[in-house]
Amino acid sequence: MSNSNLFLSIGKPIKNEYGRVIGKVASFALTPNGKFEAVYVEFGDGQFSKQPMESLRFNGIDVTFISKIKSQADTLCDHIPLIWRKDEAVKDLFEKKKITPDVYQDLHNSFENVLTQLKKEAQVIIDEASIEIERCQEEVTSLSYAIANLEIEHEIGKVDDENYKAAFALLQDTLRRASSEKTDFELTKSKLSGVLLGDQNGAIPKTNKIYAETVNTTAATKLPEPPVVVYVKEPNKTSL
Questions:
Q1: What does the buried/exposed string (b/e) look like for 111-146 if buried means 16 or more CB atoms within 10 Å of the residue's CB?
Q2: Rounded average pLDDT over 208-235
Q3: 3 state DSSP class of 43
């Protein structure tokens, strides 16, 4: 979108990557020369927060909030292997006597310090992803029970067909979103953990390959269908 059109999104809902509405655009922060710097977001609980422009994607009046965990993990998966390979290159140059010991030690220490900081940041992201995975799993479990209870109430005639179909469709849609979100966080955690494991073993793998293999493995594993309760009524019995 052009800068002028961004103002059209004020007051419009913000959805996450899975289609769930999380808030709306309240306003923008601009630099003195008119460059958009940040977005003021009113979240669903009424709280306001200033978010960097990179955290949101604008497509017409559709505004999507990008997960910080995923974006930060992608950045770290690029930076950690790069710094590791640079450190290895410096070591090779030193062994080939193409650089002096002082230059090698200075560069090595510099790369080591950067790697240590990046690995600390990576561990924080992994821990945050674990929390999100647990949250999503709790939501999936809760929704599965909600569907089961809806089936029970419909079976015994307390919920009519029209309301049952509407509620079932809503719950199924929400369940699919929660399952998709959980899968994404699991992929993010797996990809970042793979990078750290490769560094610890002295062989940083290609992150794109790790990600592709993880995606293929996950895609081949279908999510279980939500539970459906089936009742068999015996002749001459009117109660459960």
A1: beebbeebbebbeebbebbeebbeebeebbeebbeb
A2: 42
A3: strand
Six-digit token pair at 2?
């052009």
In this predicted model, what pLDDT tens digit does every residue of 3-17 receive, in sequence order?
A: 658 888 999 999 988
E-strand ranges in the chain read 13-16, 21-30, 36-43, 48-52, 56-59, 62-65
Tokens of 49: 């927060």
* Residues 78, 100: Cα–Cα separation, whole Å: 29
User: DSSP 3-state assignment of 96?
Assistant: coil
What's phi and psi for 22, nearest 5 deg? -115, -10
Q: Which amino acid is at 221?
A: T
How high is the pLDDT of residue 20? 86
Residues 6+ apart with CB under 8 A from 74: none
* 3 state DSSP class of 143: helix
> In whole angstroms, what is the distance from residue 148 CA to residue 225 CA?
12
Assigned token pair, 116: 């240590």
Q: What is the pLDDT of residues 24-61, one digit of tens each?
A: 999 999 998 888 999 999 988 788 899 988 889 998 78
Please name which of 45, 53, 58 lies closest in space to residue 29, comparing C-alpha atoms. Answer: 53
Q: How many helices (H) and strands (E) does the chain have?
A: 5, 6
* The two three-digit tokens of residue 217, written as one number: 């493995």
What radius of gyration do the chain's Cα atoms show?
A: 25
Question: What phi, psi does 226 have (nearest 5°)?
Answer: -65, 150
CA distances from 23 to 13, 18, 45, 53, 62 (A): 6, 14, 8, 15, 12
